[in-house]
C-alpha cells in the first residue's frame, strides 16, 4: 500500500501544463536565488551555535555538511532536469515512490521551508536588535527574544515575516529582482569580514581543536552534532528546484542554479569559519558537570548572560569585528546582514508556498489553497497562510531549536531524492536526462548514508519532534488527501 498510487512523470508534466505558473526566471536569477537561500542565518548566526557544539572543530563540520549537500545536489539536479515543475522533493517522490511517501516528504518539507524561514526571521532580529542597542534605541528585553531565550515575544522576527509575505504575494519577478540586490550585499559583507579577520588569525585560538569530541548518536554535541546543525547553512540550494515551473529552459538552467550556488557558498563558508575561529576563538560554554551546554536552552542563556564569548552571540560575525576593535565595521556587517537576510526568508517562504501549491493541485490539500491571484499571478492564499505561521514561529522560538527541526525534515527529503534517482535509473533507464548524476550508484548511496549520519546526530528532542510531525501528517493524509487525491479519483485540478 505504501508504494501504490505512483503518478507517472508524464502525468506530472501534463498536470503542470494545464494549471501552471509563468516561466520567467533565467540561470543567473536561479543561481542568485540559490545563493540567497544558502547564505544567511547559517553563516551569519549559527556560527556561534556550531562553536558551542564543536569548538574550532566546527570547520570540519562545515566540510562534512558541504560534502553531503554536494552529493544530494547532484541527485536533485538530475530529477529537477527530468521533472521541471514546482514541488521539489515532493513531486519527485510522487513520480517514483508513490503518493503516501510523497505526502510524508511534502509534509517533512514544511519543517525545511517554513521553519527555516522562521529561523532566519530570528537570526535577522538578532542583528537588528544589536544595531538598535548600539545606537541607543534598543527594544525592551521582553520584545527581543521568545520565551525559551529569556524574552516573551520576538517582535522584529514577527514583523519581518509579515513583510516578506506581502512581497511574495505581489509577484515572483519582483521578488527575484529584490533578491538579486540583497545577495550582492551579503556577498560583499562576507568578503569584508574575511579580508579584515584573516590577518588576525592566531594559532592558540584553535586549541583545543575538538573540545567536545566527535559526538554521539542523538546527543547533538560534537563535530557531527555541529555538522547536523550547520547543515542548515547549506539548506536552500534545493529551493532552486521549487522554481522549476517558473524557469525558462529548466533542463539546462536548474542544474546550473543548483550546483553553481552551492559551489560559491561553500568557498565563502570555509573562509569565514576559519577567520572567525582563528581571530577570536570559539570554545564552548560548560555546565557544572564540565560538559558543553546545549544551545537554545535556558541553561545556555543563563551561562551566556553578560558574556562576550563568540558562542553566546546572536550576531556572530558583527560580534567578531567588535572583539577585534573594529566597531564601525561590526556595525556595517550587522547592517548588511539586516538588509540581506530577508532574502533567505523570501526564498524559503517562496519554496514552501510552491510545494503546498503543488500538493493542492494534486488534490492532497484543499484546491482553494492553489488559487492564483488574478493580478499578481501568485498562489496568494497559501502564501498568506504560510507567512503568518512563519512569523509566529519566529516570534516564539530560539534560532538553534528551529534550525535543528528544519534539518530533520531536510535530511529526510534529501534521502528520498537520492533513492528516487536510483529507482528511476532501473525503472526508466531510457528517459531523457539533460543532466545525469555522475557515478550515481556511488554518489546517491553516499548521500543517503551521509543524511542518515547527520539525522541521528541531531538531539533526541529534535528527532522526536520529526517523527511526531510525520505521524500527524499521516493522520491528515488518510483523513483528507487519501480520499480527495486527483490521481486516485481520476479527476482533474480545478
TrEMBL record:
TM annotation in the entry: 28-46, 58-77, 89-110, 115-133, 153-171, 178-201, 221-244, 256-277, 332-351, 380-403, 409-426, 438-456, 462-480
Main location: membrane
Protein name: Amino acid permease
Alphabetical UniProt keywords: Membrane, Transmembrane, Transmembrane helix, Transport
Domain of life the protein comes from: Bacteria
Keyword set includes Lyase: no
Species for this entry: Rhodanobacter terrae
Subcellular location: Membrane
Record has Transmembrane as a keyword: yes
Annotated Pfam families: AA_permease_2 (PF13520)
Membrane topology: Multi-pass membrane protein
